[in-house]
Design goal:
alpha+beta, 2 domains
């Protein structure tokens, strides 16, 4: 009676897998997600590069550098979609087989019999094909690895290439400056939101902390950039590039030029003050001491005062370290090309 159903069940039993296609977005990028439970970072990789550059044995998370085989990077949404599609396809094939058995059974019944029997399959006809997983919305930050040329896209920041695991010094520093600008520019929104939720005091404390942390982020970001760019020339001492005079000397010995060659006298003086302000925030809660005045030559403060960090300070810091980083990169490129 159920010949077609039994045949279909045997065919399904022999089937080893159900393939559910994954669509790329309009720019050719496919969705991927870090399988590490404490990360689960969402990103995209270019479909062509996934085929031609990525390797089956290892893919790296652009955010945390978790490493896993290529078959472990499906997104949760893709997995959920695939499970639903596999179930729908199986239900459809069983429904189709049962419908065929029903029609066969009904055709075999005698028409003029005193007792008649018929069979019916209720419910809508299920589909027997799968629908590809849709791509998520486009991600704005598109990156090409400087080492293997693979293309990937993220929201926010990326520190590692998913195809080769390379940590790009240039990309990391660029991300640091973008985060600083985003944090500074969002302060008015944060202030208004906290004022409405908790009051002006909490808003002022939070926003002052945010703007001061931008100074810290800028100095640390520049330090790490210099450490990464300096690696081909040898090892640098701990925190050398937080000390402008020592950092400049390192670069002068390595590439023949230092900070004073790349910045004007006024720019260099401003950078020294900003780096020394960051030092006060890290080591004395921003309270001015004699050493700060001596090193920074900043006569606008007296001992015992607390420094003030403004949005203009952050813009100036980003501008100056960007200028230095560009000159360092150009100088290193000339050395490498010789």
């Amino acid at each position: 009676m159920f010949d077609e159903l039994l045949k279909e069940l045997k065919r399904l039993e022999r089937a080893t897998k159900v393939s559910v296609p994954i669509r790329s977005d309009e720019k050719g990028y496919m969705d991927r997600q870090c399988p590490a439970e404490n990360c689960e970072f969402l990103f995209k990789v270019h479909e062509e590069d996934w085929t031609n550059i990525f390797k089956d044995e290892a893919v790296w998370c652009p955010f945390c550098r978790h490493e896993a085989p290529s078959d472990q990077w499906f997104t949760k949404a893709q997995i959920k979609h695939a499970e639903a599609e596999a179930l729908a396809m199986i239900e459809g094939r069983i429904s189709k087989a049962m419908l065929a058995d029903t029609k066969k059974f009904n055709r075999q019944q005698p028409r003029n019999s005193f007792i008649s029997m018929s069979m019916d399959v209720t419910g809508s006809t299920k589909r027997t094909h799968v629908i590809p997983a849709r791509a998520a919305e486009l991600m704005q930050l598109e990156i090409a690895c400087e080492k293997c040329s693979s293309r990937f896209a993220v929201i926010g920041s990326a520190y590692f290439c998913p195809a080769c695991g390379h940590n790009s010094v240039l990309q990391t520093f660029s991300d640091s400056l973008r985060k600083i600008k985003a944090k500074k520019d969002s302060i008015p929104i944060v202030r208004q939101a906290i004022c409405e939720a908790s009051g002006k005091d909490d808003a002022e404390i939070t926003c002052r902390s945010m703007i001061e942390s931008c100074l810290q982020d800028g100095v640390v970001g520049f330090q790490r950039y210099c450490e990464g760019m300096y690696e081909p020339f040898g090892n640098s001492s701990l925190n050398t590039f937080q000390r402008l005079d020592q950092g400049s000397e390192y670069w002068r010995n390595a590439v023949g030029s230092g900070y004073e060659d790349w910045l004007s006298i006024d720019e260099m003086s401003s950078l020294v003050i900003l780096f020394q302000k960051r030092h006060l925030l890290s080591h004395s809660e921003g309270i001015v001491d004699a050493r700060y005045i001596q090193k920074s030559k900043d006569r606008t403060y007296k001992e015992g005062q607390r420094i003030v960090v403004t949005g203009n300070d952050i813009d100036h810091l980003v501008s100056l370290v960007s200028k230095l980083s560009n000159n360092i990169r150009d100088a290193c490129d000339k050395i490498y090309s010789v």
